[in-house]
């Protein structure tokens, strides 16, 4: 609900939250690569001549990393090694010690460094390197003048340099990953301690690629209030529907030590409804004894991925509800399994006029008169335009034995403010 000024005139300000309270807000812009459906940010690293880097925003990565050499980031007066025997390395969850002793230390060649791995979900390999810290640039929104964006800098932001191996599958606009996973080494944790702001962040993923305004999405750090033009008198943090963040006791990372919990953001989905009708399926949505199952959010999956049985049940109810609305089904377009004639779908304030999907969540919400929390998905977030004539239900079949039962993907989060509160362990949207 929040952040969705879909059809407003100020679409360029879609995700730009103004802040009329006394505090300033820290943020990084987010841009969408439409062809890959990936979301990335950009900032400057190092001194005295900073390097601009473009990194995919990921909620699941162990480390932030980029290809230092490709960006020409080879020396910096503000970079520091994170020593492998330092308390910082232990806090960050460093993996052993890495040594590179060919000549004077550079960001991609440090001696006695805290071990870290560069990885993307599409690369079948990890690139191991040393963890370093350097100054990066952030933006702040000014209290009195929301159009006025100024710069802030953050020292010792931890990341590792990689070669081009782990770039596989990433948008060609990016050469690395910024992690926002549930981990002390993630940017949100570092911002929270450096600027003494609440340990929260909120994503507003843009629905379209960059506009003439430069960017139309953002990640905000430090929590609300969130004021969104043009109704900037309403604080969106008060209308967020929240549900507890649950910890999957079994790691979902590419490498881990037995006993490590997952660093991703899981929530409990109890049931799914389409226009109020429950979707019936037998497969469980909870974790089994090995942490298989559950529901997580992911910016690296363009569309929500469901266990096959759940997917078929949801599609079945959706198609029959759509049929009663006189929406005509047409041949499917991969990867989607339910596509419709766009001419038979009305345009509404909330996007294409299709059945509404509700994920019913744990927790009662005061915003919903103390009913169960829900993640409501209107046409704007459920339908993907594959051509001028065809709109498809933007959910995909994840097979019959997925690691996670429901992966809520980027499309379903676009133009919605999704807040992760790491103090109260709640997800709000
Ligand atoms: C690398 O670090 C180790 C451990 O601190 C040290 O003994 C060694 O001399 C260092 N090597 C170089 C080339 O700096
Ligand atoms: C999952 O975690 C539980 C609790 O820590 C543990 O007993 C179980 O062996 C783990 N399963 C796997 C496959 O690691």
Report on the architecture of this protein:
The chain is mostly beta strands and 429 residues long. Helix content is 9%, strand content 34%. It has five helices and 30 strands. It has helices at 87-92, 187-195, 308-324, 379-382, 410-413, and strands spanning 25-33, 38-45, 51-58, 65-66, 80-81, 97-98, 113-118, 127-141, 149-161, 176-179, 200-204, 217-221, 242-246, 266-267, 269-274, 277-278, 295-297, 304-306, 329-330, 339-341, 347-348, 351-352, 357-365, 371-377, 383-385, 390-393, 395-397, 406-408, 417-421, 426-428. A seven-stranded mixed beta barrel has the order 1-2-3-10-4-9-8. It has a four-stranded antiparallel beta sheet with strand order 16-15-23-24. A four-stranded antiparallel beta sheet has the order 19-20-26-25. A hairpin with a 2-residue loop joins strand 21 and strand 22 (351-352). The longest helix is centred in the last third of the chain and has 17 residues, at 308-324. One 2-acetamido-2-deoxy-beta-D-glucopyranose (NAG) binds next to loops. It comes from Carnegiea gigantea. It holds the Pfam family TAXi_C. Belongs to the peptidase A1 family. InterPro entries: Aspartic_peptidase_A1 (IPR001461), PEPTIDASE_A1 (IPR033121), Peptidase_aspartic_dom_sf (IPR021109), TAXi_C (IPR032799), TAXi_N (IPR032861). Its main location: secreted.
């Amino acid at each position: 609900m929040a952040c969705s000024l879909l059809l407003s005139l100020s679409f360029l300000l879609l995700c730009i939250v103004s802040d009329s309270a006394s505090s300033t807000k820290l943020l990084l812009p987010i841009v969408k690569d439409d062809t890959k459906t990936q979301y990335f940010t950009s900032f400057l690293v190092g001194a005295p001549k900073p390097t601009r880097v473009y990194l995919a925003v990921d909620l699941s990565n162990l480390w932030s990393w980029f290809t230092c050499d490709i960006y020409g980031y080879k020396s910096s007066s503000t970079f520091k090694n994170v020593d492998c025997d330092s308390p910082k390395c232990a806090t960050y969850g460093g993996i052993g010690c890495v040594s590179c002793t060919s000549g004077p230390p550079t960001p991609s060649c440090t001696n006695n460094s805290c071990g870290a791995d560069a990885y993307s979900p599409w690369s079948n390999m990890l690139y191991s390197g040393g963890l370093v810290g350097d100054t990066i640039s952030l933006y702040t929104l000014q209290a009195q003048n929301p159009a006025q964006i100024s710069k802030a800098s953050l020292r010792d932001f931890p990341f590792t340099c990689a070669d081009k191996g782990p770039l596989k599958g990433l948008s060609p606009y990016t050469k690395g990953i910024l992690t926002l996973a549930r981990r002390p080494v993630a940017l949100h944790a570092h911002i929270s301690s450096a600027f003494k702001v609440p340990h929260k962040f909120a994503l507003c993923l843009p629905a379209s690629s960059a506009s003439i305004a430069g960017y139309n999405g953002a990640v905000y750090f430090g929590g609300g209030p969130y004021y969104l033009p043009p109704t900037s008198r309403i604080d969106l943090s008060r209308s967020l529907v929240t549900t507890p963040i649950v910890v999957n006791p079994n790691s979902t990372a590419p490498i881990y030590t037995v006993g490590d919990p997952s660093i991703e953001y899981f929530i409990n989905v109890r049931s799914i409804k389409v226009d109020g009708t429950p979707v019936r399926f037998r497969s469980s949505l909870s974790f089994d004894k090995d942490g298989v199952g559950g529901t997580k959010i992911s910016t690296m999956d363009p569309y929500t991925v469901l266990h096959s049985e759940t997917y078929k049940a949801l599609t079945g109810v959706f198609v029959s509800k759509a049929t009663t609305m006189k929406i005509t089904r047409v041949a499917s377009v991969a990867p989607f399994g339910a596509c419709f004639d766009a001419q038979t779908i009305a345009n509404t304030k909330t996007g294409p006029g299709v059945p509404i999907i509700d994920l019913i969540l744990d927790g009662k919400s005061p915003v919903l008169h103390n009913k169960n929390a829900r993640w409501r998905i209107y046409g704007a977030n459920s339908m993907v335009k594959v051509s001028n004539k065809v709109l498809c239900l933007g959910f995909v079949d994840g097979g019959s034995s997925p690691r996670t039962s429901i992966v809520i993907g980027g499309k379903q989060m676009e133009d919605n403010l999704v807040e992760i509160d790491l103090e109260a362990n709640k997800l709000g949207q």
